[in-house]
Every structure is written in C-alpha cells, then in structure tokens.
Design brief:
heterodimer; A: 498 residues; mainly alpha; 2 domains; 0% strand; globular; B: 156 residues; two-stranded antiparallel ribbon; 2 strands
C-alpha cells in the first residue's frame, strides 16, 4: 500500500499531469494523420523524453501511444484512410457507418472500447507482472537466451510478409547491434576507426530513420491529397451503452485476446486488431453484415488493439524483452534513464513500476474526454496538408537525432537507416524485426556466450534446466510447426493432383 | 525499386559471406573458445541459410535475376522530391555548423514545402514559425546545444 501511495505521489504532480496532457494532444495529432503511426509518435517523442525524469518520460510515451492508436481510427472512419495499421483492420465497417451518416457512432465505439480494452490490459499487467517477476528471478542465462530467441522468432513469424523476409530484417538489426566495443571480448567491431561507433549504433537515431524518415520518403513519392471530411451522427457516447449491453462477450474476448497477443514478444496492437476482427466475424451471429457498417467488429478489435498496447508491457517490464516496436523504444528509454527493465526492477524500483501502472490507467481514462475533443476537432487536424506537415516532421527528426548525443553523427545514422528502411519496405521486408534485433542483439549475445562458456560448448545444457527446456521446446515448436503445416499442405496438394 | 527474389537471395548469401569474412580476425575471450566473433559468425551462418532458402525457392518458381522498377523510378517529380529530402538532410549536416540552426532549418523547411507544392504565402510564415518554435523548444527549453547563429543572438 505504501508503495502505491508513493507511486501515486510520483504521478499526481503538476509537471507529470501537464506532460500527460501535452503528450495526449501530440499522440492524437500524430495518430490522426494518415500514414503516421503510433510507433512514429513514440520515436519522435523520445528525444524530448531524454530531458525528463523517468516517470514523466514513460508517462508521455504511454499516453501518446494510447491516444495515437485510438486517433488512427479518425481518418479511417472519416476518410477511409486508416491512420495506423491497427485501424486498417476495421476501416471498411467504420467508413461504411460514416457513409450512413453515423460517423460519431463509429468513432464513439472505437473510443469507448479502446479505453475499456486499455483498462482491461492494464489490470492484467498490474496483476500478472509481479507474479511473473518472481518467477523470472530464478532465470539464468539459459532461460534468458531462449526467451530472447522466442521473442525474435515470434517477431519474424508474425510480421507481415514471408518469414524469410522477416529473418532478413532481423539479421539487419542483429548485425547493427554487433557494432561497437560492448561485446564479450571488449574489442572494437565494425567501428572503422570512428570514435562515435565505439559506443555502437545509437538506437534512437536508427529508429527515427527506420520509421519516420522512411515514411517521409514514401509520402513524398505518393502525393495524395485528402478528400473532404464528412462527419455527423447521433452523439459520440450515446450509442455505446447499447453496444456494451449487446456485445459484452465480444468486449471481453477482444480485450483478453488483445492482452495475450500484446504480451507475446514481437506481436503488437496491429496484429491484435486484425486477429480480433477476424474472430469477431467468424463467431458473429451476423457475419454477413461485416464490411457494410456493422459495429460488432469495431467493438471487439477496438478493445483488442489498446489492450495489446498494455499487454506488450508485460514482457518488457518483467523480462526486459519488448512485446512490440513501441516497447522496444521504451526499453531504450529506460536504459538511458538508468533503469534496467527485468525482474529486479520490481525489487529495486517498485514505486516506479506502480507509477507506470497508474499512468496506464490515467491515460486510458483521459482518452475519453480527449478523444471526444479530437473527434469534434477532427476536421481541423485532417485539413493540414501533408506537403506542409512532412517538412516540419523532417526537421523534428533531424533535431531529435542530434539531441540524443548532441552530435551530428546521430543525423548521419538517421539518414543511413532512413534509406535502409525505405529500401526494406520497397522490398516487402518488415521493419519491426530489425528494431527488435537491434534492441535484443546485445542481450542475445551476452546470454549466448555466457551460456556456452558455462556449458563448455555443450548445447544439451540449454535444455537441462526445466524452464529453459520448456522455453527451448516452445521456441523450436514456433519454428517447426509452420514448416510441418507447409509440408502437410504441399503433400495434400500433391495427392490431390494425382 | 524492388529486387527479384532470386537477386535478393543471392545478395543475402553474399552479405552472409561478407559478415563471416569480416569476423574471422575478431579475438576470443582469453582462455575461452568464444569471443567477439561468435555472434557475427552465428549471424553470418543464419544469413547464408536464409539466402540459400530464398534462392532455392526462387529457382523452383523459375524466378529471374534483376530489378523490378516501379512507376516512381520513371517519374522525374518523384525522383526530385526524394532526392531533395536526402539532400536537405545532408545540407543540414554540412550547413548548420556554418550558418547556425535557425537559418539552416528555415531554408530546409521553405525549400521542402515549396518543392512539395505548398503555396509561398503559406510556406514562408509556417517555415518561420516552425523554425522559431523548434529552436526555442529544443534550444532554449530543453537546452540542446543546437548550432548558434552569431547574427541572430536574440534567439538564444
């Protein structure tokens, strides 16, 4: 109880509340602009958080992300231009509702159910994290090795496109993580005599390049102007009570599934929204109505995407392994702040962890009034043309990359990774595995080399401890099951041909 | 600008080989068989494996070597805009230490906005306000040592 009061004291300070409000406005703005994702909002926010205390820094990221994920629904609903990949899952229904003159009903549903999903995910995060942290205290390098490999494997298999392309992305990230002097032998690797590279590839400029600069490059290639906004309907909150009464099971299922998918290392809100929409349609009594302005899919996947955002924090806080690209960024921020995510943070900094939980609840509750304002002001946000906005975002990227180490080298890195990110996406190579590789690379190397030294080169030792064996088998299953399914499908096709 | 699966597979194999060769000379931890080269070598093996998989798959599908050029590659406007963004970043790296942050940032914004099609009547005031806002928030409020301009001392 004392810890909770201390945590609340950390959060309920004028400076933190102000940061939360400003970040909420920022997240709403970025999320509402088509093409700018919640991850990009986080990437652009990081250089600013660098100058904050840990609690406001994390609070700003949590709030901006939650708001951006919801706000992604605004252009999707009003213009059929999903603001984030998660919103794309149910954009057909949301836009069809707008065409029927009920845009406020659609946006109200995504707002209210996003908040419900977010609160559900936070409660799971609050209750499960300390228990998991107790278990994680017993982990050695073998368990951590498997956990990292499992996270990276999930990132490869759940990323859009083929697993082979996901692997290429992962290896780009892992290779970038090998640069520098921080390795088991302590010798410079791939530094080419540059003192700047001794510290390794700085994570923040690399990420700003991969996500934000590549997005700017793509947006200047395809100059599309936004159509006029049509909005209206019978009130934002009015219809939602009826939706809660009509679809209670869908709300719980979406929230639970979203939390579980979010907690899976490598998966995030985007995947959660798509899977939840598919499940909602599969088990609906009215599947034929999906796609024509039916609110059921919106209710379930709206709850799911924000629940996933909270769920992704479970592995990030407990094991120091990010659940998605946003928590990968957050782990970087926590390290910069001198806080090492993992089970020990629950012992060393419990107030800090509970403060994060309170911020989650606060962000999801505040989403309701702020979301209402955003829906009402959507016309203004969406009227800002990309041709004016993108140069300003470019300047933010430049300043943000410079601010990390106060060195132009950050901008050089941003430029290189911007081009790499652009080329990757042109070739359908997903970016998220590269980010996870860059973040988890040092952890993978350290635990692998430590384990090999401990076991004197024997791979059997990786399966000798019960939890390590369980994690190892689960990881091998992640790799083998898709291959087996592919073989079975091919054999089935061959026998059909005969 | 998309490379075909066969080309991608071969490029990935070459990248894996290059990583392996580059890691040969990395030293080990004294008294151990593992060290700085362990991880790069593991990445190299996995990269070559992925490349072989992609190549074999492409060969089975009768894929070809080459580059599939998309529409934007033939569009001068698109090439100009993408080149401009990259050139403006390079211009900042080279120009900011000489001109200072504010003039460089203003030039970047105004050029980018005009090339992307914003009307001058909007581009000029927006660039000016954005430059001052970013300079004041990062340079003054967050104390980021952005390059100063001696002829604009009132900004600092």
């Amino acid at each position: 109880m004392t810890i909770l009061i201390e945590a609340a004291a950390l959060v309920f300070q004028p400076q933190v509340i102000l940061v939360i409000l400003a970040s909420a406005a920022f997240g709403m703005f970025v999320g509402a602009i088509p093409g700018l994702t919640a991850t990009m909002a986080t990437a652009l926010l990081v250089p600013v958080t660098f100058f904050m205390d840990p609690v406001p820094a994390i609070a700003s990221i949590v709030t901006a992300t939650a708001m951006a994920i919801f706000a992604g629904d605004i252009p999707g609903t009003l213009l059929r231009m999903p603001g984030t990949p998660a919103s794309a899952a149910y954009v057909q229904d949301a836009y069809a509702m707008t065409r029927k003159g009920n845009s406020e009903g659609a946006l109200g549903a995504s707002l209210v159910f996003s908040a419900i999903g977010g609160i559900f995910g936070t409660i799971v995060l609050m209750t499960s994290s300390p228990v998991l942290a107790d278990i994680a205290l017993k982990f050695s390098s073998f368990e951590y090795f498997w956990l990292v490999v499992m996270g990276l494997s999930c990132a490869v298999f759940v990323s859009p496109g083929s697993p082979a392309r996901g692997l290429i992305s992962l290896f780009i990230g892992l290779f970038a993580a090998t640069v520098g002097i921080d390795n088991p032998a302590g010798v410079p690797r791939y530094t080419f005599g540059s003192i700047e590279l001794y510290a390794g590839v700085q994570f923040i400029p690399a990420m700003i390049g991969l996500f934000a600069v590549s997005e700017i490059l793509r947006s200047v290639l395809n100059r599309t102007e936004m159509p006029a906004v049509q909005s209206g309907g019978g009130g934002i909150f009015k219809q939602q009570i009826a939706n809660i009464v009509k679809y209670p099971f869908q709300v719980v299922r979406g929230s639970a599934l979203g939390t579980a998918i979010g907690a899976l290392p490598g998966a995030g809100a985007d995947i959660a929204a798509w899977i939840s929409y598919a499940i909602s349609k599969k088990f609906s009594r009215e599947p034929e109505k999906f796609g024509s302005g039916h609110v059921e899919g919106l209710v379930e996947s709206g709850a799911s995407n924000n629940a996933a955002m909270s769920g992704a924090w479970i592995p990030a806080l407990v094991f120091g392994i990010p659940g998605d690209s946003i928590t990968a960024i957050v782990i970087g921020v926590l390290y910069i702040k001198g806080i090492n995510p993992g089970p020990m943070v629950f012992i060393n900094d419990p107030q800090m962890i509970y403060a994060v939980f309170i911020v989650f609840l606060l962000a999801n509750i505040m989403m309701l009034p702020l979301g209402w304002l955003a829906i009402k002001g959507a016309g203004t946000i969406l009227s800002i043309p990309q041709r004016t906005l993108m140069p300003i975002i470019l300047l933010f990227c430049i300043v943000g990359s410079f601010a990390i180490n106060n060195s132009p080298f950050g901008i050089v890195l941003m430029l290189i990774f911007g081009i790499v990110g652009f080329l990757m996406e042109e070739n359908d190579i997903p970016i998220a595995p590269a980010i996870l590789g860059l973040v988890l690379g040092p952890m993978l190397e350290q635990n692998f080399v430590t384990s090999m030294i401990k076991s004197q080169g024997s791979f059997i030792a990786f399966f000798e401890r019960p939890i390590a064996a369980g994690l190892g088998i689960a990881t091998l299953a992640i790799w083998c099951i898709p291959l087996l399914l592919m073989l079975v499908a091919r054999r089935g096709k061959a026998s059909d041909d005969i | 600008m998309r490379v075909t699966d066969l080309t991608l597979g071969c490029l990935v194999i070459l990248a894996g080989i290059a990583i392996f060769i580059s890691a040969i000379d990395f030293t080990v931890i004294p008294g151990q068989s593992y060290g700085a080269g362990t991880m790069p070598r593991a990445i190299a093996f996995a990269t070559v494996g992925t490349g072989i998989f992609l190549t074999v798959k492409a060969l089975l599908a009768k894929g070809r070597f080459g580059l599939e050029l998309e529409e934007w590659v033939f569009n001068r406007g698109s090439l100009l805009r993408i080149g401009m963004i990259l050139a403006l970043i390079v211009f900042y790296i080279a120009g900011a230490p000489i001109l200072g942050f504010a003039p460089t940032a203003f030039l970047i914004l105004i050029v980018a906005m005009l090339v992307l099609g914003t009307r001058p009547l909007i581009a000029v005031p927006v660039s000016l306000v954005a430059t001052v806002a970013i300079q004041q928030s990062f340079g003054k409020l967050l104390l980021v040592p952005l390059p100063r301009s001696d002829f604009l001392p009132f900004l600092w």
